[in-house]
Each structure stands twice: as structure tokens, then as C-alpha cells.
TrEMBL record:
Coiled coil: none
Annotated CDD domains: SAF_NeuB_like
Protein name stated in the entry: N,N'-diacetyllegionaminate synthase
Record-annotated AFP-like domain positions: 259-319
GO molecular function, one term: N-acylneuraminate-9-phosphate synthase activity
Matching InterPro entries: AFP_Neu5c_C_sf, Aldolase_TIM, PseI-like, PseI/NeuA/B-like_N, SAF, SAF_AFP_Neu5Ac, SAF_PseI/NeuA/NeuB
GO biological process: carbohydrate biosynthetic process
Natural source organism: Marinisporobacter balticus
Amino acid sequence: MAYLKEMIKDIAQIGLDAVKFHLLFNPYSYLQNEHPLMETVKKWIFKEKQWDEIFKYASKNNLDTIALCDDVESLAYVNNKHKDIKAIELHATSLNDYFMLKEALKFNNQIILGVGGSTIDEIEYAVNFLKEHGKSNIFLMYGYQSYPTNYEEINLLKMLKLKSLFDLPIGYADHTAYDDQNNVDISSLAAAIGINVLEKHYTPDFGIPRIDYHAAVGKEHMMQIKKKMEMYLTIYGNGSLSMSEAELKYGNIGPMKKALVAKIDIYKGEKISFNNIWFKRTEKEVPIKQKEFIKFIGLEVLKDIKKDEVIDFSKVNYKYIISNFKDLAGGLEEKK
């Protein structure tokens, strides 16, 4: 309990959003009686009052709580006493477990489905089961279930395909080796393609052998991962097609985009034509957009315009003209 609270406190100090707990109440509901892990697992199990204290401690540290439940009993516990937590999760081992899915239906908030090592039809079964019973707040958690993971097998693109195929949000659960020099980059790279949820194993005792230590990072690595994720997500953006102030400034006519100028000296009374105009970058911003040059073709110049001088409507006798030009290099047909 003390060790777990230490981790919760660290996670809060790092500034992460949520902590996920692995719940199991009845090992006989999860493992065969003669399973070699049975006696070990029994020693790890917290009682309900202990979990009550843990959930309360996480909330006190301003962390959302996610309950990864391994048995129906732990799901029932959450449904009876902690329905207000952020989410429950069904591990990939229970993805098509009818009884687990049935109990999960009683939970009102987000339901996370662990889909690592699962086929499309297995994911489809679970998603359809929940949707057919009125659940829409479903989230997929993708993770290559290998400890530690060979990064060549992670296949981040698969996440985007699953997200599109099921029209559901998706997150990435990373299990890169704790001592891999690329751990921080591998863990945070999913954010570069818009995946804004990352799950990582955490330990206060980095590199010291414990359960899952080989895929767990310490405080320093977790802070680096958080920082990189924030940067990648900022760069990824929101997909808006509207231009930012910087883009608008960069797109100014003249200093950046070339402005309409006189190619040669144009004298009063002459007309603007394809032969006496050009586009050049200028020191100052001008109001005439490049595509508006056609409005000037055929107009009479009111005063002399020197070579390289910007052409605008103050220098021509402007009348509304509907222009139809067949050959930009050759001629112009005008209709007044």
C-alpha cells in the first residue's frame, strides 16, 4: 500500500492526468485452480477497503482513476462503489469474455477495451456488444503485448487504421524496454500522429527487478515523455484550415508573395497589358493580390508609372470589366 501511494504521489507531481490500477478480487474467477501463478497472485490482492483508500488517495492528488478489471468481482465492486471514476478497462485477455462485457454494461462512464494482440473480428465483437446495449463511450487501447517490445513491431499506423475502422478514439500503451536508449522517443512518437493518450508502466525504483520493471520508466523518463508528447501534439495541431496570425503575416503581398509591378516604364494614356507588367517581391506590403492582376489588363494609366513601381487602382482609370482571356501569353478579349 505504501509503495503504491508513493507511485501515485510521483505521478501527480509529474503532472500526469490519470493513474490506472489493476484490480483482481477473486483469483479463482481469473485463473484455473492449478495455475502456477495462483499462489503468487493471492499475495498481491487488496481488499475492498484498501482499494477504497487507494481510489480516495488518487482523487486527493487530482488524478483521474481508471480501473483495469481482471474479474467480474472487481467490475462489480467498481459498479457498486466507484461508478464516478473516469473509466474502466477490459484487458485484451477479457476482450470477448461475455460475462465481463455484461458486467461492464453497468458502468456509466468510459469503457476502455485493450485490443493488443487481438484480431479485427475480436475487437468488432466487443465493440458491437457494447454498442448494441446502448454504450457509445468506448475507447480502444492499443499496445503490442510483448515485454519488452521490439519497436520494429509496434506499427503505429495500425492505430490510425483501427481508429478509422471503428470510428473510435484510441490510445497507445507502450512497453519499450526500460533501458532502451530510444524509450522516450518511442513512447511519445504516437503523439506526432495525433494519438493523445499514452499508457506507461511506472516505478519509483527504475531498473530494479520487480514485476513489470523491464517496461517501467522512472520519474525522469516520464517527465521527458510528457514534455515531448506536449510538443508533438502542439505541432500536430487541430487541423484547422484557417490561417494563424503568423501565416497571414507570412502571406502578405509584397514582402513575401510577389506584387504586381511595371515591367517597363508605362506612360500616361497607355494601357496595361501582358507586355508591360511583372511580378516581383517588394519591401513594403501592397493591397493587390496576385490573382487580381487580370482586372488591370486593358486599363488606361492615369499617370506615368516607372519600371518596378507597384501598380494599384489609384494609378489607372478603373471601370468594371468582365474579362475573358484565351491565351495569357498572347491576347485578350474584352467585353464591356
